[in-house]
């Protein structure tokens, strides 16, 4: 499913919170998602690379595909 409302380059830090656009969930191993839409990082600095059809979250040592599903 293609997602149209994503920022292409978003930097955020460990122990921080990233407020997602309402109506979306993120499912990915190693992360916590709360119903309120806050993304809690476990460690490190991460960069979001995304286009409308292939969102990817990555850091220097790993790349993890994530799914965006309407709530």
* Structure class: mainly beta
The profile of the biggest β sheet is:
4 strands, antiparallel
In total, the number of strands is 9
Mean pLDDT: 41
H/E series: EEEEEEEEE
Distance between the termini: 13 Å
Q: Considering DSSP H and I runs of 4 or more, what fraction of the residues is helical? A: under 10%
The side-by-side strand order for the widest beta sheet comes to 1-6-7-8
Helix count?
A: 0
Strand content: over 45%
Nearest-angstrom radius of gyration? Answer: 11 Å
Assembly type: single chain
Low-confidence stretches are 1-71
Could you characterize the architecture of this molecule?
The chain crosses the membrane at residues 12-34. By secondary structure, the chain is mainly beta. The protein has one domain. It has strands spanning 9-12, 17-19, 24-27, 32-33, 38-40, 46-49, 56-59, 62-65, 67-70.
Short description:
With 71 residues, this protein is an all-beta fold. The protein has no helices and 9 strands. The chain has one domain (9-70).
Question: What keyword list fits this structure?
Answer:
about 70 residues; mainly beta; four-stranded antiparallel β-sheet; three-stranded antiparallel β-sheet; 9 strands; about 0% helix; globular; disordered N terminus; disordered C terminus
